Please model this.
Amino acid sequence: MPPQPGRPFDYTRENIRGSVPAEAGVYWLRTSDGVAYIGESNNLQRRLFEHAKKDPLRFQYDTVKSYCGRYDLVNYPWKSPKWMAHKIENTELTLYEDRFGGLPPLNRKRNDHRTDVLESVIETVYREGKNWWP
Model:
């Protein structure tokens, strides 16, 4: 569920430095073919700088705090922002896999099994029939 409908940021150091916080969260790297990678980090800004070698055209991101607020998970019993970012990443990979029949091209493997930790997010997406990957 890439955050905030609309256009992703162009992948430039200036856009990363100017808009991405050094907080835990999830991110989506895009190429001309669509979502190429879904990841998580305890420092989004640092991690997006590290992805330059994958040559993405655009990126989107969401902090743990923002994601949890949007999906009414503020009271979810999470252990740490990093732990929650990992759970969100697995939820996003599950949604992508269900929609496209496999992982994004640059996600070679999953670090975890399919998750039901954020089942309310998944249920909301399916119930409302939302298309998160245009």
User: Anything to note?
Assistant: The two ends are 10 Å apart (CA to CA). The longest strand covers residues 34-41. The chain has five helices and four strands.
